[in-house]
Amino acid sequence: MILLSFDWMLAVEKLILIAVIILASLGIALYTTFAERKVAAILQDRRGPNRAGPFGLLQPLADGLKLFFKEDLIPNNSNKFLFILGPALAMTAALMTCAVVPFGDKAEVFGRTVTLQIADVNIGILYVFAVVSLGVYGIMIGGWASNNKFSLIAALRGASQAISYELAMGLSLIAVLMITGTLQLGEIVKQQMSGQWNIVYQPLGFLIFFICALAECNRTPFDLPEAENELNFGYHQEYSSMKMGFYLFAEYVNMIISSAVMATLFFGGYDLPFLDESTLPVNIAAIIGVATLLTKIVIFLFVFMWIRWTIPRFRYDQLMNLGWKKMIPLALANMLLTGAVILWLGK
Amino acid sequence: MQALTNRAKPVERRPMTWLESIYLWNIIKGMAITFSHIFKKKPTINYPEQKRPFSPVFRGLHVLNRDEEGRERCTACGLCAVACPAEAITMEAAERLPGEENLYREEKYAAKYEINMLRCIFCGLCEEACPKDAIYLSETFAPSNYTRKGFIYGKDDLLIPDPKQAPADFAKAKGLAEA
Does B34 touch chain A (CB under 8 A)? Predict the structure, then answer.
């Protein structure tokens, strides 16, 4: 029986890991909405939500519960199948990206060595890009199926924005990949643990990547798909109840994932600087690793919010000018420079 | 033409330089400003827990006063109703019967005394008009209500607690004791 020779414990282990990571990212996303409001309040000299529970900590639960109890409307003239598919796709695409992010090195549970990464695919970063670009279908389909002109315009904006900024993002990534020489995220982190973080070699690349990540997550200043004042909330205008919640939630999950990817690519992933993890017991090193990555994610999330509550939204032509005339040439120059330096040093 | 103030600035219409056109420096400046606001004092008061003290001359809800023996001071003379610019006060007078001397201070009293808090402008003219020192404005304001009817305050809402039967409540209403 060839079937029995399969390591069934591996499947169980991976399933548990998948459940933990999905629940954790949903939980973090839930509290990111809370943090968003708190950060907004603090940056504007306000107090923010502080009524539900101690320090308002139950606020996200109250918000979620409220969304669940709202009436779930589907517009009469909408395409019902696509209308439901839109938010589902947005959420799935957001969650699928977690699969290749290394959350830590290894842990030992019941005598088994568990890798704290769902799948260390050898084309990890390509997978991330593929899935992230799928996310735009959630916006497109949702906006189109709503049968509403505002939603449609927002969806088109979202799609063209995502395409424009993905180019610069990919180009800035190529420079990183020239240095690492691998697409495997686990390997990229291991290289940074033994050597320098990639941010040291690629500060400009990181900057471009970060700006493009803002655009990919539809965060301010690039939140044109949901521009409240001109498009009436954009592509999720016709949505209500938990479908709307899924869209809003997917945005936060996307933020978390892009923070994790940025931490992995440029800031050493789960690597705590000035600490040699190999001397520590495996499980302690794993805990430190996970905590380090989470800290880096939280810092990135704060910067995301900090930017959101500082900068107003770009006008659409400014957005396109920045994407095509500034970001892409910069990314190209960065790529060429990196390539030239690598050739010159003869690595 | 001479400028009105010396603050006038000519509008600059030169195209942005390349560095300006990627907005980075200005964005960083803006972010520094928002970051500095983390350390600023918040002006918000946590309302139901913390309250801002009223001014000593604050004019709030009306109170119908009693004298030291707990008798109602109001004689239903109607001067407050006449003085009221918003016509918020109505009353009906009644004659004190024998045996009610411990309830009412004089031979005539207000059987019904109503103030419509939606009409009232809290000017305090009733307080000034009253010759018997029977009505004054306290330091609380009318709480919200679901119906218009709920804002018509009768005698049971306005009358101060009896200083003899409920001295603690009386002191509280007078503002003598801490709430």
Answer: yes
